[in-house]
Amino acid sequence: MVPVEYYLLLSSALFCIGLFGVLTRRNALYFLMSVELMLNAANINFIAFSFQWGNLTGQTFALFTIALAAAEVAVGIGIILVLYRNFGDIDVMDAAAMRW
């Protein structure tokens, strides 16, 4: 049996990689992939604690998070297509510059 601490270490590493990607990347596709990494890190936490406590609540929340991630990707790809159509590039800083 694998201890829960290993799952937490894996989850924190995935979350840190995703956070680094969100904070440093300018490409919208990398941004979406980084957000997905952070959501997967949360899912690992949900399932690890669900397994530790012996109930299915964490696994249920993980399924809802997976469904939320699928909806987020669908909306995100639509936004990326609009960015590419309007600016010719998927750099998120171009769209952020329009606010000013």
Automatic annotation (TrEMBL):
<feature type="transmembrane region" description="Helical">
    <location>
        <begin position="61"/>
        <end position="84"/>
    </location>
</feature>
<dbReference type="InterPro" id="IPR039428">
    <property type="entry name" value="NUOK/Mnh_C1-like"/>
</dbReference>
<dbReference type="GO" id="GO:0030964">
    <property type="term" value="C:NADH dehydrogenase complex"/>
</dbReference>
<keyword id="KW-0813">Transport</keyword>
<keyword id="KW-0560">Oxidoreductase</keyword>
<feature type="transmembrane region" description="Helical">
    <location>
        <begin position="30"/>
        <end position="49"/>
    </location>
</feature>
<feature type="transmembrane region" description="Helical">
    <location>
        <begin position="6"/>
        <end position="23"/>
    </location>
</feature>
<comment type="similarity">
    <text>Belongs to the complex I subunit 4L family.</text>
</comment>
<keyword id="KW-0472">Membrane</keyword>
<dbReference type="GO" id="GO:0042773">
    <property type="term" value="P:ATP synthesis coupled electron transport"/>
</dbReference>
<dbReference type="InterPro" id="IPR001133">
    <property type="entry name" value="NADH_UbQ_OxRdtase_chain4L/K"/>
</dbReference>
<keyword id="KW-0812">Transmembrane</keyword>
<protein>
    <submittedName>
        <fullName>NADH-quinone oxidoreductase subunit NuoK</fullName>
        <ecNumber>1.6.5.11</ecNumber>
    </submittedName>
</protein>
<dbReference type="GO" id="GO:0016651">
    <property type="term" value="F:oxidoreductase activity, acting on NAD(P)H"/>
</dbReference>
<keyword id="KW-1133">Transmembrane helix</keyword>
<dbReference type="Pfam" id="PF00420">
    <property type="entry name" value="Oxidored_q2"/>
</dbReference>
